[in-house]
Specification:
Elements lengths: L9 H23 L5 H7 L6 H15 L1 H11 L1 H18 L6 H29 L2 H29 L5 H22 L21 H12 L2 H31 L4 H6 L2 H17 L5 H25 L3 H27 L6 H25 L6 H13 L2 H10 L2 H4 L3
Length: 415
Protein backbone atom coordinates (compact mmCIF):
# COMPACT_ATOMS: atom_id res chain seq x y z
CA UNK A 1 0.00 0.00 0.00
CA UNK A 2 1.24 3.50 -0.78
CA UNK A 3 2.34 5.69 2.12
CA UNK A 4 0.00 8.68 2.32
CA UNK A 5 0.78 11.99 3.97
CA UNK A 6 -2.86 12.80 4.76
CA UNK A 7 -5.36 10.79 6.77
CA UNK A 8 -7.52 8.96 4.24
CA UNK A 9 -8.52 5.31 4.24
CA UNK A 10 -7.40 2.64 1.78
CA UNK A 11 -10.77 2.67 -0.02
CA UNK A 12 -10.58 6.42 -0.65
CA UNK A 13 -6.94 6.10 -1.73
CA UNK A 14 -7.92 3.47 -4.30
CA UNK A 15 -10.95 5.46 -5.48
CA UNK A 16 -8.93 8.67 -5.77
CA UNK A 17 -6.16 6.98 -7.79
CA UNK A 18 -8.73 5.29 -10.01
CA UNK A 19 -10.71 8.49 -10.67
CA UNK A 20 -7.54 10.51 -11.29
CA UNK A 21 -6.22 7.84 -13.65
CA UNK A 22 -9.53 7.73 -15.52
CA UNK A 23 -9.60 11.51 -15.94
CA UNK A 24 -6.03 11.62 -17.23
CA UNK A 25 -6.67 8.72 -19.59
CA UNK A 26 -9.83 10.38 -20.87
CA UNK A 27 -8.11 13.72 -21.57
CA UNK A 28 -5.51 11.92 -23.68
CA UNK A 29 -8.06 9.56 -25.22
CA UNK A 30 -10.11 12.52 -26.45
CA UNK A 31 -7.14 13.35 -28.64
CA UNK A 32 -5.93 9.95 -29.79
CA UNK A 33 -9.17 8.03 -30.30
CA UNK A 34 -10.35 10.62 -32.81
CA UNK A 35 -7.11 10.71 -34.84
CA UNK A 36 -8.17 7.89 -37.26
CA UNK A 37 -11.36 9.85 -37.96
CA UNK A 38 -9.71 13.23 -38.53
CA UNK A 39 -9.70 12.87 -42.30
CA UNK A 40 -13.44 12.07 -42.05
CA UNK A 41 -13.89 15.16 -39.88
CA UNK A 42 -12.24 17.44 -42.43
CA UNK A 43 -14.25 15.85 -45.26
CA UNK A 44 -17.55 16.13 -43.37
CA UNK A 45 -16.88 19.76 -42.43
CA UNK A 46 -15.55 20.55 -45.95
CA UNK A 47 -12.15 21.62 -44.63
CA UNK A 48 -8.58 21.17 -45.84
CA UNK A 49 -6.56 18.18 -44.57
CA UNK A 50 -4.00 20.58 -43.05
CA UNK A 51 -6.41 20.89 -40.11
CA UNK A 52 -5.50 17.34 -39.02
CA UNK A 53 -2.26 18.34 -37.23
CA UNK A 54 -3.68 21.79 -36.41
CA UNK A 55 -6.54 20.27 -34.39
CA UNK A 56 -4.06 18.15 -32.44
CA UNK A 57 -1.75 21.09 -31.71
CA UNK A 58 -4.71 23.25 -30.68
CA UNK A 59 -5.63 20.53 -28.20
CA UNK A 60 -2.12 20.74 -26.72
CA UNK A 61 -2.17 24.53 -26.64
CA UNK A 62 -5.54 24.41 -24.89
CA UNK A 63 -3.71 22.76 -22.03
CA UNK A 64 -1.60 25.90 -21.70
CA UNK A 65 -4.33 28.55 -21.80
CA UNK A 66 -5.48 28.35 -18.18
CA UNK A 67 -2.62 26.69 -16.34
CA UNK A 68 -1.08 30.00 -15.27
CA UNK A 69 -4.34 30.77 -13.45
CA UNK A 70 -5.36 27.28 -12.32
CA UNK A 71 -2.28 26.69 -10.18
CA UNK A 72 -2.63 29.83 -8.01
CA UNK A 73 -6.43 29.42 -7.79
CA UNK A 74 -6.03 25.85 -6.56
CA UNK A 75 -3.52 27.10 -3.98
CA UNK A 76 -6.26 29.33 -2.54
CA UNK A 77 -9.51 27.44 -3.09
CA UNK A 78 -8.13 23.88 -3.02
CA UNK A 79 -7.36 21.20 -5.59
CA UNK A 80 -10.71 19.39 -5.30
CA UNK A 81 -13.17 22.12 -6.49
CA UNK A 82 -10.85 23.17 -9.33
CA UNK A 83 -10.51 19.63 -10.64
CA UNK A 84 -14.29 19.12 -10.49
CA UNK A 85 -14.76 22.29 -12.57
CA UNK A 86 -12.13 21.11 -15.04
CA UNK A 87 -13.65 17.69 -15.54
CA UNK A 88 -17.09 19.27 -16.08
CA UNK A 89 -15.69 21.70 -18.69
CA UNK A 90 -13.99 18.84 -20.48
CA UNK A 91 -17.14 16.70 -20.59
CA UNK A 92 -19.38 19.50 -21.86
CA UNK A 93 -16.95 20.52 -24.62
CA UNK A 94 -16.65 16.90 -25.78
CA UNK A 95 -20.42 16.48 -25.92
CA UNK A 96 -20.78 19.80 -27.78
CA UNK A 97 -18.66 18.48 -30.67
CA UNK A 98 -21.60 16.21 -31.56
CA UNK A 99 -23.47 19.14 -33.11
CA UNK A 100 -20.66 21.26 -34.57
CA UNK A 101 -21.06 22.25 -38.22
CA UNK A 102 -17.82 24.07 -39.11
CA UNK A 103 -14.10 23.41 -38.80
CA UNK A 104 -13.69 26.70 -36.91
CA UNK A 105 -16.16 25.60 -34.23
CA UNK A 106 -14.54 22.17 -34.13
CA UNK A 107 -11.09 23.68 -33.59
CA UNK A 108 -12.46 25.94 -30.84
CA UNK A 109 -13.92 22.91 -29.08
CA UNK A 110 -10.58 21.12 -29.42
CA UNK A 111 -8.99 24.08 -27.65
CA UNK A 112 -11.58 23.86 -24.85
CA UNK A 113 -11.17 20.09 -24.58
CA UNK A 114 -7.42 20.57 -24.29
CA UNK A 115 -8.00 22.76 -21.24
CA UNK A 116 -8.90 19.53 -19.44
CA UNK A 117 -5.26 18.54 -19.91
CA UNK A 118 -4.32 21.78 -18.16
CA UNK A 119 -6.39 20.82 -15.13
CA UNK A 120 -4.63 17.45 -15.01
CA UNK A 121 -1.18 19.05 -15.02
CA UNK A 122 -1.81 22.11 -12.84
CA UNK A 123 -4.24 20.64 -10.30
CA UNK A 124 -4.19 16.84 -10.11
CA UNK A 125 -0.41 16.35 -10.28
CA UNK A 126 0.30 18.62 -7.27
CA UNK A 127 -2.53 16.87 -5.37
CA UNK A 128 -0.86 13.53 -6.04
CA UNK A 129 2.48 14.84 -4.81
CA UNK A 130 0.81 16.18 -1.64
CA UNK A 131 -1.06 12.95 -0.86
CA UNK A 132 1.87 10.52 -1.20
CA UNK A 133 5.49 10.39 0.00
CA UNK A 134 8.21 11.22 -2.53
CA UNK A 135 9.22 7.73 -3.69
CA UNK A 136 5.59 6.62 -3.97
CA UNK A 137 4.65 9.85 -5.74
CA UNK A 138 7.36 9.31 -8.37
CA UNK A 139 6.23 5.70 -8.84
CA UNK A 140 2.60 6.72 -9.18
CA UNK A 141 3.53 9.47 -11.64
CA UNK A 142 5.33 6.87 -13.75
CA UNK A 143 2.38 4.48 -13.50
CA UNK A 144 0.00 7.28 -14.44
CA UNK A 145 2.28 7.92 -17.39
CA UNK A 146 1.88 4.27 -18.39
CA UNK A 147 -1.89 4.54 -18.19
CA UNK A 148 -1.87 7.77 -20.18
CA UNK A 149 0.29 6.07 -22.79
CA UNK A 150 -2.39 3.44 -23.26
CA UNK A 151 -4.25 6.21 -25.07
CA UNK A 152 -1.84 6.73 -28.00
CA UNK A 153 -1.08 3.00 -27.89
CA UNK A 154 -4.67 1.77 -27.99
CA UNK A 155 -6.53 4.98 -28.87
CA UNK A 156 -6.08 4.77 -32.65
CA UNK A 157 -7.05 1.08 -32.65
CA UNK A 158 -10.07 1.81 -30.46
CA UNK A 159 -11.00 4.71 -32.72
CA UNK A 160 -10.85 2.43 -35.78
CA UNK A 161 -13.10 -0.11 -34.08
CA UNK A 162 -15.57 2.51 -32.89
CA UNK A 163 -15.81 3.96 -36.39
CA UNK A 164 -17.23 0.62 -37.51
CA UNK A 165 -20.38 1.36 -35.49
CA UNK A 166 -20.28 5.07 -34.60
CA UNK A 167 -19.66 8.32 -36.44
CA UNK A 168 -16.99 10.71 -35.23
CA UNK A 169 -19.77 12.86 -33.74
CA UNK A 170 -21.10 9.95 -31.71
CA UNK A 171 -17.58 9.17 -30.47
CA UNK A 172 -17.37 12.66 -28.99
CA UNK A 173 -20.78 12.20 -27.36
CA UNK A 174 -19.54 8.94 -25.84
CA UNK A 175 -16.47 10.74 -24.47
CA UNK A 176 -18.74 13.38 -22.90
CA UNK A 177 -20.88 10.73 -21.18
CA UNK A 178 -17.78 8.95 -19.87
CA UNK A 179 -16.45 12.27 -18.52
CA UNK A 180 -19.67 12.62 -16.50
CA UNK A 181 -18.94 9.30 -14.78
CA UNK A 182 -15.35 10.38 -14.06
CA UNK A 183 -16.67 13.64 -12.55
CA UNK A 184 -18.86 11.59 -10.21
CA UNK A 185 -15.85 9.48 -9.17
CA UNK A 186 -13.81 12.60 -8.37
CA UNK A 187 -16.74 14.01 -6.39
CA UNK A 188 -16.93 10.86 -4.27
CA UNK A 189 -13.26 10.08 -3.67
CA UNK A 190 -10.92 13.02 -4.25
CA UNK A 191 -9.55 14.36 -0.94
CA UNK A 192 -8.64 17.98 -0.37
CA UNK A 193 -4.89 18.46 0.15
CA UNK A 194 -4.68 22.25 0.64
CA UNK A 195 -5.10 23.52 4.19
CA UNK A 196 -5.34 19.97 5.57
CA UNK A 197 -3.01 18.88 8.38
CA UNK A 198 -0.88 15.91 7.38
CA UNK A 199 0.35 12.99 9.42
CA UNK A 200 3.76 14.65 9.77
CA UNK A 201 2.11 17.67 11.42
CA UNK A 202 2.63 19.93 8.40
CA UNK A 203 0.16 21.18 5.82
CA UNK A 204 0.06 22.75 2.39
CA UNK A 205 -1.08 26.30 3.24
CA UNK A 206 -3.77 28.16 1.37
CA UNK A 207 -2.16 31.04 -0.55
CA UNK A 208 -4.52 34.02 -1.16
CA UNK A 209 -4.77 34.89 -4.83
CA UNK A 210 -3.32 38.26 -5.85
CA UNK A 211 -2.59 39.37 -9.40
CA UNK A 212 0.49 41.35 -8.35
CA UNK A 213 1.82 38.61 -6.09
CA UNK A 214 1.11 35.92 -8.72
CA UNK A 215 3.01 37.86 -11.40
CA UNK A 216 5.89 38.37 -8.99
CA UNK A 217 5.98 34.65 -8.14
CA UNK A 218 5.92 33.68 -11.81
CA UNK A 219 8.72 36.17 -12.46
CA UNK A 220 10.80 34.62 -9.70
CA UNK A 221 10.25 31.15 -11.20
CA UNK A 222 11.28 32.34 -14.66
CA UNK A 223 14.46 33.67 -13.08
CA UNK A 224 15.21 30.24 -11.56
CA UNK A 225 17.70 28.55 -13.95
CA UNK A 226 17.07 25.04 -12.63
CA UNK A 227 13.31 25.36 -12.99
CA UNK A 228 13.56 26.87 -16.47
CA UNK A 229 15.96 24.18 -17.69
CA UNK A 230 13.75 21.39 -16.34
CA UNK A 231 10.56 22.81 -17.87
CA UNK A 232 12.11 23.44 -21.30
CA UNK A 233 13.73 20.01 -21.21
CA UNK A 234 10.35 18.36 -20.50
CA UNK A 235 8.85 19.92 -23.62
CA UNK A 236 11.77 19.27 -25.95
CA UNK A 237 12.28 15.70 -24.75
CA UNK A 238 8.66 14.84 -25.60
CA UNK A 239 8.58 16.80 -28.88
CA UNK A 240 9.48 13.88 -31.20
CA UNK A 241 6.76 11.69 -29.64
CA UNK A 242 4.14 14.45 -29.76
CA UNK A 243 5.05 15.24 -33.37
CA UNK A 244 4.68 11.56 -34.27
CA UNK A 245 1.18 11.49 -32.73
CA UNK A 246 0.12 14.58 -34.66
CA UNK A 247 1.62 13.71 -38.04
CA UNK A 248 1.26 9.91 -38.13
CA UNK A 249 -2.24 10.02 -39.71
CA UNK A 250 -0.88 12.11 -42.60
CA UNK A 251 2.36 10.17 -42.98
CA UNK A 252 0.91 6.67 -42.77
CA UNK A 253 -2.65 6.99 -44.08
CA UNK A 254 -2.29 9.76 -46.65
CA UNK A 255 1.35 9.59 -47.79
CA UNK A 256 2.03 5.85 -47.44
CA UNK A 257 -1.62 4.96 -48.19
CA UNK A 258 -1.99 2.51 -45.32
CA UNK A 259 -5.41 1.26 -44.16
CA UNK A 260 -6.43 2.70 -40.76
CA UNK A 261 -5.91 -0.60 -38.95
CA UNK A 262 -2.29 -0.85 -40.13
CA UNK A 263 -1.75 2.76 -39.07
CA UNK A 264 -2.95 1.83 -35.57
CA UNK A 265 -0.69 -1.21 -35.37
CA UNK A 266 2.40 0.88 -36.19
CA UNK A 267 1.75 2.91 -33.01
CA UNK A 268 2.23 -0.12 -30.76
CA UNK A 269 6.07 -0.39 -30.80
CA UNK A 270 6.61 3.29 -30.00
CA UNK A 271 4.25 3.57 -27.06
CA UNK A 272 5.08 0.12 -25.73
CA UNK A 273 8.67 1.35 -25.53
CA UNK A 274 7.65 4.36 -23.41
CA UNK A 275 5.79 2.03 -21.05
CA UNK A 276 8.87 -0.20 -20.87
CA UNK A 277 10.95 2.85 -19.95
CA UNK A 278 8.53 3.74 -17.16
CA UNK A 279 8.72 0.19 -15.80
CA UNK A 280 12.54 0.35 -15.86
CA UNK A 281 12.30 3.62 -13.93
CA UNK A 282 10.16 1.96 -11.28
CA UNK A 283 12.73 -0.83 -10.83
CA UNK A 284 15.72 1.52 -10.61
CA UNK A 285 14.17 4.02 -8.19
CA UNK A 286 15.22 1.97 -5.16
CA UNK A 287 18.91 2.03 -6.02
CA UNK A 288 19.46 5.23 -8.03
CA UNK A 289 18.93 8.94 -7.44
CA UNK A 290 16.80 10.87 -9.88
CA UNK A 291 19.84 12.49 -11.47
CA UNK A 292 21.48 9.09 -11.97
CA UNK A 293 18.29 7.81 -13.60
CA UNK A 294 18.26 10.73 -16.02
CA UNK A 295 21.89 10.12 -16.92
CA UNK A 296 21.15 6.46 -17.66
CA UNK A 297 18.07 7.38 -19.69
CA UNK A 298 20.07 9.70 -21.95
CA UNK A 299 21.80 6.71 -23.57
CA UNK A 300 18.74 5.19 -25.29
CA UNK A 301 17.23 8.65 -25.68
CA UNK A 302 20.16 10.10 -27.64
CA UNK A 303 20.96 6.93 -29.58
CA UNK A 304 17.36 6.67 -30.75
CA UNK A 305 17.30 10.25 -32.00
CA UNK A 306 20.70 9.92 -33.71
CA UNK A 307 19.46 6.77 -35.48
CA UNK A 308 16.31 8.69 -36.45
CA UNK A 309 18.42 11.43 -38.02
CA UNK A 310 20.46 8.77 -39.84
CA UNK A 311 17.22 7.28 -41.19
CA UNK A 312 16.36 10.65 -42.68
CA UNK A 313 19.78 11.14 -44.27
CA UNK A 314 19.91 7.58 -45.66
CA UNK A 315 16.31 7.53 -46.85
CA UNK A 316 15.37 4.54 -44.67
CA UNK A 317 11.80 3.23 -44.65
CA UNK A 318 9.12 3.16 -42.01
CA UNK A 319 10.53 0.14 -40.10
CA UNK A 320 13.89 1.76 -39.17
CA UNK A 321 12.14 5.05 -38.34
CA UNK A 322 9.75 3.33 -35.91
CA UNK A 323 12.60 1.28 -34.41
CA UNK A 324 14.61 4.47 -33.80
CA UNK A 325 11.57 6.18 -32.28
CA UNK A 326 11.05 3.17 -30.01
CA UNK A 327 14.63 3.30 -28.71
CA UNK A 328 14.24 7.02 -28.02
CA UNK A 329 10.91 6.30 -26.32
CA UNK A 330 12.56 3.95 -23.80
CA UNK A 331 14.82 6.80 -22.68
CA UNK A 332 11.87 9.20 -22.56
CA UNK A 333 9.90 6.81 -20.33
CA UNK A 334 12.87 6.41 -17.98
CA UNK A 335 13.44 10.14 -17.57
CA UNK A 336 10.16 12.04 -17.91
CA UNK A 337 8.79 11.57 -14.36
CA UNK A 338 12.21 12.21 -12.83
CA UNK A 339 12.66 15.49 -14.72
CA UNK A 340 9.12 16.55 -13.73
CA UNK A 341 9.91 15.89 -10.06
CA UNK A 342 13.08 17.98 -10.28
CA UNK A 343 11.10 20.79 -11.94
CA UNK A 344 8.40 20.70 -9.26
CA UNK A 345 10.86 20.85 -6.38
CA UNK A 346 13.31 23.29 -7.96
CA UNK A 347 11.50 26.04 -6.05
CA UNK A 348 10.05 26.37 -2.55
CA UNK A 349 6.97 28.12 -3.94
CA UNK A 350 3.56 26.40 -3.82
CA UNK A 351 3.38 23.30 -5.98
CA UNK A 352 0.18 24.43 -7.71
CA UNK A 353 1.90 27.49 -9.15
CA UNK A 354 5.15 25.64 -9.96
CA UNK A 355 3.27 22.80 -11.67
CA UNK A 356 1.16 25.28 -13.64
CA UNK A 357 4.18 27.09 -15.09
CA UNK A 358 5.99 23.80 -15.71
CA UNK A 359 3.01 22.54 -17.69
CA UNK A 360 2.60 25.82 -19.57
CA UNK A 361 6.22 25.90 -20.69
CA UNK A 362 6.50 22.21 -21.58
CA UNK A 363 3.15 21.97 -23.41
CA UNK A 364 3.78 25.25 -25.23
CA UNK A 365 7.12 23.91 -26.44
CA UNK A 366 5.43 20.71 -27.64
CA UNK A 367 2.51 22.54 -29.26
CA UNK A 368 4.51 25.25 -31.02
CA UNK A 369 7.27 22.82 -31.92
CA UNK A 370 4.80 20.36 -33.41
CA UNK A 371 3.08 23.15 -35.37
CA UNK A 372 6.43 24.37 -36.71
CA UNK A 373 7.49 20.88 -37.83
CA UNK A 374 4.10 20.43 -39.54
CA UNK A 375 4.42 23.85 -41.22
CA UNK A 376 7.85 23.07 -42.71
CA UNK A 377 6.69 19.82 -44.26
CA UNK A 378 7.04 17.24 -41.51
CA UNK A 379 3.79 15.63 -42.59
CA UNK A 380 4.63 15.47 -46.30
CA UNK A 381 7.53 12.99 -46.21
CA UNK A 382 8.82 10.50 -43.67
CA UNK A 383 12.38 11.79 -44.08
CA UNK A 384 11.35 15.36 -43.24
CA UNK A 385 9.55 14.19 -40.12
CA UNK A 386 12.56 12.13 -39.00
CA UNK A 387 15.18 14.86 -39.35
CA UNK A 388 13.14 17.62 -37.72
CA UNK A 389 11.85 15.40 -34.90
CA UNK A 390 15.41 14.24 -34.13
CA UNK A 391 16.72 17.80 -34.20
CA UNK A 392 13.95 19.04 -31.90
CA UNK A 393 14.50 16.26 -29.37
CA UNK A 394 18.28 16.70 -29.24
CA UNK A 395 17.83 20.41 -28.50
CA UNK A 396 17.00 19.40 -24.91
CA UNK A 397 20.57 18.29 -24.16
CA UNK A 398 21.96 21.70 -23.06
CA UNK A 399 19.00 22.14 -20.70
CA UNK A 400 19.36 18.63 -19.28
CA UNK A 401 23.09 19.14 -18.77
CA UNK A 402 22.49 22.42 -16.92
CA UNK A 403 19.74 20.81 -14.84
CA UNK A 404 21.99 17.96 -13.75
CA UNK A 405 24.80 20.39 -12.95
CA UNK A 406 22.63 22.63 -10.77
CA UNK A 407 20.55 19.99 -9.00
CA UNK A 408 21.79 19.28 -5.48
CA UNK A 409 22.04 15.72 -4.24
CA UNK A 410 19.51 16.18 -1.43
CA UNK A 411 16.84 17.21 -3.94
CA UNK A 412 17.69 14.45 -6.38
CA UNK A 413 17.84 11.48 -4.00
CA UNK A 414 14.61 9.58 -3.42
CA UNK A 415 13.51 9.21 0.17
Amino acid sequence: MQRTLINIGPRQVAGFCLALTAFELLTYMASDVIMPAMLDVTTDLEADARHVPHAFNLYLLGGVCLQWLLGPLSDQFGRRPLLLIGSALFGVSCAAAFSTDSIEAFNLLRLLQGMGLGFVVAVSYPALQEVFCEADAVRLMALLGNVALLSPLLGPLLGILLLEWLSWREIFLLLGCTAALVWLGLLLWMPETVGVERRDGQQTPRVPFSWRLTCRRYGALLGNPRFLCASLALGLMSLPLITWIGLAPLLLVRVLEMPPLEYGLWQIPVFSAVIAGNLILDRLLQTHSLTQLIQLALWPFCLGLLFLAACALLGAGLGPVVASLSLYAVGLGMSNSAVYRLALFSSDDSKGLVSALTGMISIAVMGFGGSLIAAIGGGSRLEYFAIWAAFGGLMCLPMVYRLLQTTTSDVASPQ
